[in-house]
Amino acid sequence: MIKGLMFDLDGTLLDRTRSLQEFINTQYERHADLLQKVTSQNYVEDFLEYDQNGYLHKKHVYRKLVEKYKLDHHLYDILLADYYMEFHGHCVPMDDLDVLISYLKESSLMSGLMTNGETIFQTKTIEALSLEDVFHCALISEEEGIKKPSPEFFYRGLQQLDLQSNETIFVGDHPYNDIQAAKKLGMYTIWVKSIYYEKPKEADFMIDSLSEIPEIVQSLLKGGST
Questions:
Q1: How far apart are CA 200 and CA 196, in angstroms?
Q2: Beta bridge partners of 205
Q3: Per-residue pLDDT, 54
Q4: Short-list 168, 208, 134, CA closest to 1
Q5: Is the peptide bond before 200 cis (omega within 30 degrees of 0)?
Q6: The predicted structure's pLDDT at residue 225
Q7: Residue 159, CA distances (Å) to 1, 122, 135, 155 in order
Q8: 171 by DSSP, 3-state: which?
Q9: Is 96 in contact with 86 (CB distance < 8 Å)?
Q10: Per the CATH hierarchy, to which homologous superfamily does domain 4-15+92-221 belong?
């Protein structure tokens, strides 16, 4: 019997790529007078490449940009500070996040959020997406002192929701940190399709839109197969 769902944040509920593209373009415009050595297109393309879909810390991304274009070193601090200050004004939700939110609020299912990242930054992301009152618990790796794919991180989420792994669905985009890790613990898994990864074999379901989740839950409640 399915009793709850747990969700990743970046790339699952937050359309991280679109959010970052919007932010980078506006950052370039804000600091165009200091970035004359680099075109807007190159700035955006190089930022996204160095970012590695969020797996390289922004301090290293900006250091690479400053070094590549031989920019004044003081720009490193300016651009990094600008990222922390301005990014959350550009948070774009994944398609049909509003549909999912309505479903979770109307459902009797328990729901939780689990994300790697810095506590203050990810809290602001949650608020920017109006998710602060949606989930019964939200775990952020910096605050917990542990991160995905550690089993302990998942167990903490399950404990807070008072759920067993075999009655929980995990929804995420990363093949290893989300899907494989959750499957190893006995959870059902839904992979949010990503241009960055191939479908993991551990995924029970694959979705293009968050609006597909209610139907999957119903199929499992009725004893449907994967």
A1: 12
A2: 190
A3: 87
A4: 168
A5: no
A6: 45
A7: 17, 21, 14, 6
A8: strand
A9: no
A10: HAD superfamily/HAD-like (3.40.50.1000)
DSSP strand E in 39-175: where?
A: 110-115, 137-140, 168-172
Residue 201 in contact with residue 177, Cβ under 8 Å? no
* Interatomic CA distance for residues 195 and 173, integer angstroms: 10
Write down the pLDDT at residue 226. 43
Dihedrals phi, psi of 5, to nearest 5 degrees = -130, 145
Task: Say how many CA atoms lie within 13 Å of 193 toward its Cβ.
Answer: 9
φ, ψ for residue 56 (rounded to 5)?
-120, 125
Query: Which residue in this structure is represented by tokens 């089993």?
Result: 151
- At 167-200, the pLDDT tens digits run 999 999 999 999 999 999 999 999 999 999 999 9
Take residue 83 and report the two structure tokens written for it: 């990222």
**H and E: helices and strands count for the chain:** 10, 6
Residues of the chain with pLDDT under 50: 225-226
Q: What is the domain partition of the chain in residue ranges?
A: 4-15+92-221, 16-90
**CA separation, residue 116 to residues 9, 10, 143, 146, 196 (Å):** 8, 9, 10, 9, 18
Map tokens 């031989």 to a residue: 70
